[in-house]
Amino acid sequence: MIIKLPFSKYNLQIVRTESDKQVKEEPKTSQISKRNYDKVFVIGYGKTGTTSLKKTLELFGFAVGDQTVAEILSEDWSKGRADRILRYCHTADAFQDLPFMMSGLYKQLDQTFPNSKFILTVRENPEQWFQSLIKFHTKVFSTNKNFVPTAKEMENTLYRYKGWVLDTAKFFWDYPEVPLYNESAYKAKYIKHIQDVNTYFENRSNDFLQINVANKGDFKKFCAFLNIETTMENFPWENKTNEK
């Protein structure tokens, strides 16, 4: 399947390939006993273990959506537009990070793709999440590794396209109304997202799971949630510095 999407800065083409060509071969020690659901959406904020979860899903044979395309499409949702994001969701089995962690998008996904699974990744507490976020952004986007990146540095960063990082700060973190890396505002948004998601999926344990990838017991919950049988005992932990 080929889907062409017009972008403001790029013309990109999404290609759906067979999962055995797109991801690594499924480990012989693992199998999905019963795939009785449609999509898998990871809707936790960045720096909550989403990279580890992506790796796990790939190991278990899920085709994970192209993150470059997804991130470029993210601004659509901030403008109330969902059509291109929904078309993109037909290209794979599982999705994570932007735009799927954006406020309220999970409701649209739940309506459009019934019988799907939603996984909310969280950290131990908001402080742990915030410190991980600023450490990662400082390492990747700042020229002075003792300080968080400035708006100018974000504007000049060549990631996805020049200025995408600053654009994201605007539509996701409400910059400049909210100063960059304002601790109280960022933590409040993180907490509200967790509360809103749990409220929406209340009493829907077959469709929704909240996990902390650092908790060994949550790996078993994750596997049971997706009907995965495996001899693995924990999530494959990606490099902590690069973990999103």
Describe the structure in your own words.
With 244 residues, the chain is of the alpha/beta class. It has a single domain (2-230), classed as P-loop containing nucleotide triphosphate hydrolases (Rossmann fold, 3-Layer(aba) Sandwich), CATH 3.40.50.300. Helix content is 41%, strand content 14%. α3 (67-78) crosses α8 and α6 (126-141) crosses α9 (183-200). The model is unreliable at 2-10 and 14-23 (pLDDT under 50). This is Sulfotransferase.
Q: Considering the protein shown, what is the CATH homologous superfamily?
A: P-loop containing nucleotide triphosphate hydrolases
**CATH level 1 class label:** Alpha Beta
CATH architecture: 3-Layer(aba) Sandwich
Order of helices and strands: EEHEEHHHEHEHHEEHHEHE
Describe the main β-sheet briefly.
4 strands, parallel
Q: What portion of residues is helical? A: 40-55%
Counted up, domains total 1
Output mean pLDDT: 89
CATH topology: Rossmann fold
Strand fraction: 5-15%
Strand elements, count: 10
Q: How is the largest sheet built, in terms of strand order? A: 5-4-6-9
Cα radius of gyration in angstroms: 18 Å
Shape: globular
**How far apart, in Å, are the first and last alpha carbons?**
29 Å
Short description:
This protein is α/β, with parallel strands linked by helices and 244 residues long. The protein has a single domain (2-230), classed as P-loop containing nucleotide triphosphate hydrolases (Rossmann fold), CATH 3.40.50.300.
What attributes does this structure have?
244 residues; 10 helices; alpha/beta; 4-stranded parallel β-sheet; Sulfotransfer_4; Sulfotransferase; P-loop_NTPase; Rossmann fold
